[in-house]
Write a structure and sequence with these properties.
Strand 10, helix 7 and strand 11 form a beta-alpha-beta unit. The termini are close together. This protein has 2 domains: about 200 residues, Glycogen Phosphorylase B (Rossmann fold), CATH 3.40.50.2000; about 170 residues, Rossmann fold, CATH 3.40.50. The longest helix is centred in the N-terminal third of the chain and has 26 residues. By secondary structure, the chain is of the alpha/beta class. It is globular and about 60 Å long. The protein contains 13 helices and 15 strands. The strands form 3 sheets. The chain has a 7-stranded parallel beta sheet with strand order 3-2-1-6-7-8-9, sandwiched between helices. Strands 12-11-10-13-14-15 form a 6-stranded parallel beta sheet, with helices on both faces. It has a two-stranded antiparallel sheet with strand order 4-5.
């Protein structure tokens, strides 16, 4: 069997979630291959149920945040060290397994290391140009140069998501010329309508608010504020119920409150179906979650992590093209959050979900490159 490794960045759980989808796609396409997914020790549930193997061998990367703000001076050194450690760990796994191909999802230091050891490497990313918001002039100028250098080192390159999330047209054109662009990974596995219907049936006549903040501990402040705001929301929005998914990085005991209509879970299996069943989603601005929300066309209130350039860019894109409402983390508080939720429900009225779906996205995702992605895989096998 031809072994194929997919290794996921451990900054949050979104990388592991989308790479699990890609692993399924590759495994179903290449029956003569054996796909092994290297993921974080805290994201095992992300890939459960697939035909591929999962090795939870990469340590989680801490995302230090305070009151909804990324602590960049603490995050950067930890991220660099984790990236180096993961490069070494992936190299050890490669030496043991001798794969025909390695796909690296934003594991930057692993690209030159594995290429120097003679392995074919496909580098995957969703973040090419940061923009000055949250990254400053240095980051806006230097990050694309780093990406281009990694892509030259790699045997192939994949841009995940819609290239129009990249603000500058010159970088959009460069990506489309030099990278394979399969579009939104969320579109590879749409939710089953029956599962969303079963979830809705558990809350007859209720307005279901689903809250999720990704896979790191950085979303704890948002979850705490939302739960504190729920008492006001429940008084002002008739029949409102709230289901909170903490994710692997947050202890549910720190969020849970004894309150009618409130459920707090560590993990929600098949989160996409919960998003599809919801009347409103409240979330941070991780790409994987926002793509899933856009796919099921759920109304959403997004609160990007302050000082986080990627989340700021994601929030701008999805609020502009998919009608999601945006709220800044520095303005977050129970009163303002409750006001924002009430405004969203009032805007659409009783038939909120149907009216939102009728709007549709203002731009379509360029998700026509799945065949190109599989052709790139085949080239090395």
């Amino acid at each position: 069997m031809k072994k194929i490794l997919i290794a996921s960045s451990t900054v949050g759980a979104g990388h592991a979630v989308r790479d699990a989808q890609l692993a399924r796609l590759i495994q179903e396409h290449r029956r003569d291959g054996e796909v092994i997914h290297l993921a974080g020790t805290d994201t095992m549930q992300a890939g459960n149920g697939g035909p591929h193997q999962i090795w939870a061998c990469l340590r989680p990367t801490a995302v230090p945040a305070s009151n909804g703000r990324l602590m960049g001076s603490q995050f950067l050194p930890g991220w660099v060290k984790a990236d180096l450690d993961h490069a070494v760990q992936v190299a050890r796994c490669a030496r043991q397994l001798r794969p025909k191909l390695i796909l690296l999802d934003e594991l930057h230091c692993a690209v030159p290391l594995l290429r120097s050891l003679g392995y074919p490497v496909i580098f995957m990313t969703d973040m090419f140009a940061l923009g000055e918001a949250g990254s400053g002039r240095w980051g806006a100028r230097r990050w694309p140069e780093l990406m281009r250098l990694l892509i030259r080192w790699a045997s192939g390159a994949v841009f995940l998501g819609d290239t129009r999330r990249v603000d500058e047209e010159r970088w959009q054109l460069w990506i489309e010329r030099n990278m394979v662009c399969p579009g939104s990974v969320a579109a590879l596995r749409p939710p089953e309508p029956e599962q969303a219907d079963r979830i809705r049936a558990r809350y007859p006549g209720k307005k279901l608010i689903v809250v999720t903040a990704g896979g790191s501990a950085a979303g704890e402040h948002l979850l705490q504020m939302v739960v504190e705001a729920f008492e006001q929301i429940r008084r002002r929005v008739a029949d409102a119920v709230m289901v909170v998914a903490c994710g692997p990085g947050i202890d549910p005991a720190r969020i849970r409150r004894e309150m009618p209509g409130l459920e707090v879970h560590h993990y929600l299996p098949d989160l996409t179906s919960w998003l599809a069943a919801s009347d409103l989603v409240i979330t941070q601005a991780g790409l994987c979650t926002l793509e899933e929300i856009a796919q099921v066309q759920a109304p959403a209130l997004i609160v990007p992590l302050e000082n986080h350039p990627e989340q700021i860019a994601n929030a701008a894109y999805f609020s502009r093209h998919y009608g999601m409402r945006r709220m800044e983390a520095d303005a977050l508080g129970p009163d303002r959050l409750a006001d924002a939720v009430v405004r969203i429900f009032k805007r659409f009225g009783p038939e909120m979900r149907k009216k939102y779906e009728s709007m549709g996205p203002q731009t379509a995702d360029n998700s026509n490159g799945v065949d190109g992605f599989l052709e790139l895989i085949d080239r090395f096998l």
